[in-house]
């Protein structure tokens, strides 16, 4: 056999064939192609469309339909690009409206519904664009197929599982949808308020760096020479967190076992930089979180007064520092500085946290029965009744006033108008008052002591 020339020029592809391999489509434009059916091997129709999912990215949605055998399937593609980080979504489904939330699931994602003991492992399904209800329906269809192929005993189990999933399709039962995707290409639609600023309280998104196992599963290169931990510790020493989650090894205050404290520096819009610290023990389950204000110390104190009148007010973001007091005059509630530490939540979340802390106290069970009566036989206001007052405020059975007062001005209540009109936007329900700190306040904060030490 004659040797093939090594420097032979590659054959040129005709210009017509080049154009046949390329599909030119604009955003939102539908493209139809004739393709072979994988079932009957006859010709069917494949429809392609590039669409933009709000707050996510552009994706390619493909749908195949065979008129001969009825074969149908759909798939979503991401152009071969992975997301920046591993994503983990937890959606609390509470009503029928939540059943219509859009869900983008990549082929590398795992879907879990703990209430149904349901788990869809990765690589078992292609990428798809669906809704919560659609995922449940897809599960029911899959169980029906399994029932036809399995034994009698397995068929009974599949029918029982199908009936359980069917009960959750109406949205009357509460359940949780968990999507864990190391590729970072999955997405769950969030519901926002009118001003499009409030975070959805039913949806929780957690992102983290991919582990070596994640990178192996995705076929990505592993950097064995990475010194990320050392760099992170150096960044903490320099005070340069750059918006990343920094992990510092610490000891659990409950069981004294080693654990990791997560620290994240974030910029709250229309406020200032803050540092959020969270700890969870893998041994005993102990959890704690704390918020620290970054930047320089304010020269004046700040008092915020919010009139809560509707549900949108309950969803306002609230930052309470460890040096601030909290007061609700309508129920004679007053938390002194240092109580509950610092935290970042919503108005509703703040009330719920206070309620839960009070409900755990043994005093909440006292003053019941005969001890709840005074000499004239009338019921007196107990801690248990006080917890009920907080329940009424959370249910918004009456308007109320929340007052945050901090001599260091490290408190914040969200002003929805600021997102549209700027920092100077006036909110009729929110009043901010700056004041000069008293001598006693500066002494409690240690300013006079620092001045004496400097001398």
Automatic annotation (TrEMBL):
<comment type="similarity">
    <text>Belongs to the ZPR1 family.</text>
</comment>
<dbReference type="InterPro" id="IPR056180">
    <property type="entry name" value="ZPR1_jr_dom"/>
</dbReference>
<dbReference type="GO" id="GO:0005634">
    <property type="term" value="C:nucleus"/>
</dbReference>
<keyword id="KW-0863">Zinc-finger</keyword>
<feature type="domain" description="Zinc finger ZPR1-type">
    <location>
        <begin position="35"/>
        <end position="190"/>
    </location>
</feature>
<dbReference type="Pfam" id="PF03367">
    <property type="entry name" value="Zn_ribbon_ZPR1"/>
</dbReference>
<dbReference type="InterPro" id="IPR004457">
    <property type="entry name" value="Znf_ZPR1"/>
</dbReference>
<dbReference type="InterPro" id="IPR042451">
    <property type="entry name" value="ZPR1_A/B_dom"/>
</dbReference>
<dbReference type="GO" id="GO:0008270">
    <property type="term" value="F:zinc ion binding"/>
</dbReference>
<keyword id="KW-0479">Metal-binding</keyword>
<dbReference type="Pfam" id="PF22794">
    <property type="entry name" value="jr-ZPR1"/>
</dbReference>
<protein>
    <submittedName>
        <fullName>Zinc finger protein, putative</fullName>
    </submittedName>
</protein>
<dbReference type="InterPro" id="IPR042452">
    <property type="entry name" value="ZPR1_Znf1/2"/>
</dbReference>
<feature type="domain" description="Zinc finger ZPR1-type">
    <location>
        <begin position="250"/>
        <end position="415"/>
    </location>
</feature>
<dbReference type="InterPro" id="IPR040141">
    <property type="entry name" value="ZPR1"/>
</dbReference>
<keyword id="KW-0862">Zinc</keyword>
